[in-house]
Amino acid sequence: MIEINLDVVMLKRHISSKELAKRIGITQANLSILKNNKAKGIRFNTLEKICKELNCNPGDIIKRIS
Fold first, then answer.
1. What span, in angstroms and rounded, lies between the C-alpha atoms of 6 and 17?
2. pTM for this structure?
3. What distance in Å separates the CA atoms of residue 26 and residue 63, rounded to the nearest whole number?
4. Domains in the chain: how many in total?
5. Containing domain of residue 59, as a range?
C-alpha cells in the first residue's frame, strides 16, 4: 500500500493547499485528492513541481507501507 504524506510536509513548510496549488499549477481539488490518498497516480512532472516548491524529495511525500 502507498501512503501520501503531502499534508505533513506542507505543514512543516508552512504552506497552504491554496498556495501550493497555485505555485505548481493544479487545482485545489486535484491537490486535495492527492493529499487525501484518493489519487490513482501522480505525474512525475507534478511530483517534481511539488518537491521543488516544498524543498523535499519524493520519498518525503510518498511512502510504501506493508
1. 10
2. 0.91
3. 22
4. 1
5. 2-64
* pLDDT tens digit sequence for 28-62: 999 999 999 999 999 999 999 999 999 999 999 99
The label of the residue with cell 493529499 reads 35
Note the pLDDT of residue 25: 96
Strands, E, within 1-66: which ranges?
2-4, 62-64
Determine the straight-line distance between the first and last CA of the chain, rounded to whole angstroms: 6
Residue 14 exposed, middle or buried by CB count within 10 Å (0-12, 13-18, 19+): exposed
Q: Assess whether pLDDT exceeds 90 at residue 66.
A: no
Question: Domain containing 53 — which CATH number?
Answer: 1.10.260.40
Phi, psi of 18 (to 5 degrees): -60, -45
